[in-house]
Amino acid sequence: MADLRTPELGHIVVLAGGLSYEREVSLRSGRRVADALRSLDLDVEIRDADATLLDALQAAPPDAVLPVLHGSMGEDGAIRDVLDLLDVPYVGAGPQACRIAWDKPTAKSVVRAAGLTTPPSVTLPKEVFHDLGAAALLDRVVSRLDLPLFVKPARGGSALGVSVVREAGDLPAAMVGCFAYGDAALIERYVEGTEIAVSVIERDGEPVALPAVEIVPAGELYDYTARYDAGDTEFVTPARISDEAARQAADAAVTAHRALGLRDLSRTDLIVDAVGRVNFLEVNVAPGMTETSLFPRAVTAAGLDLGRTLRDLIARRRFP
């Protein structure tokens, strides 16, 4: 990304924290982002998304806001609505695009319509699961989708409440675990293959895919512990996939970014199966920025500096 000359860029607020299950991850992301921007001699303040935020933003409007809030408030469009109401520029997707991307079944439908391959799935709200008879319903799910299955909250992040189901008898417990983190479960056919993440940044208004990061967890799942405990997961950049699969993965991430109406930055999670087909899993509008997160790894693999990359995105929101 071009090194913009932005002496006019003044006070920047990094939003981190919030009250979601991912609060601690968000705070770690916020600290890393603030340090990266401060290394460029920028005036950066970290603020939590709490009862003091609205008054603070109105009393001293920042030049721009960089949200690194994870979970519902940070990714469901709500905080973006608030920033729009205050006429404060911010990095990242607008409220409507966030709402669509945050809802995984809706996002899957949108990207499928755009031509991407995504595993077949069903979505079951907690009420339907209980009211219609769990046993009979889950029997039909297994019959329709086949085993193994992947169960995850229809809305949420950091792999909280996710599980792989290889035996039909394990599905009820997986559903209960999922419902601990959300009111609806997305049940997908599990795709065996190479798990990768492709981050996207915008250059001159055009989304550009960064090198794919391959994810090799110590256990079966790239779960919350594997994501955020250093040493629990091996990351390989660029991913060990064919050149053709790498091209398709980059195209898929850019297609998802465009189809969902995202802007500035995003991260798309994909699986490359045994025949080299790229499968869309989900997209993240507020990628993690911790020391183990995928977006900063992709930035580094592209030969870019995290602070300068984020500064340039901020400058484009402040001076469109």
TrEMBL record:
Residues noted as binding Mg(2+) 1 in the record, renumbered to the chain: D269, E282
Protein name: D-alanine--D-alanine ligase
Function noted in UniProt: Cell wall formation.
Organism: Thermomonospora echinospora
ATP-grasp domain boundaries: 108-315
Cofactor notes: Binds 2 magnesium or manganese ions per subunit.
InterPro entries, per the entry: ATP-grasp, ATP_grasp_subdomain_1, D_ala_D_ala, Dala_Dala_lig_C, Dala_Dala_lig_N, PreATP-grasp_dom_sf
Gene3D superfamilies: 3.40.50.20, ATP-grasp fold, A domain (3.30.1490.20), ATP-grasp fold, B domain (3.30.470.20)
Active site feature: E22, S158, S293
UniProt catalytic activity: 2 D-alanine + ATP = D-alanyl-D-alanine + ADP + phosphate + H(+)
First-listed, main subcellular location of the protein, grouped into a coarse class: cytoplasm
SUPFAM superfamilies in the record: Glutathione synthetase ATP-binding domain-like, PreATP-grasp domain
Cellular location(s): Cytoplasm
One example GO MF annotation: D-alanine-D-alanine ligase activity
Pathway(s) annotated for this protein in UniProt: Cell wall biogenesis; peptidoglycan biosynthesis
A single Gene Ontology CC term: cytoplasm
Example of a GO biological process term: cell wall organization
UniProt enzyme class: ligase
Domain of life: Bacteria
HAMAP family (alphabetical): Dala_Dala_lig (MF_00047)
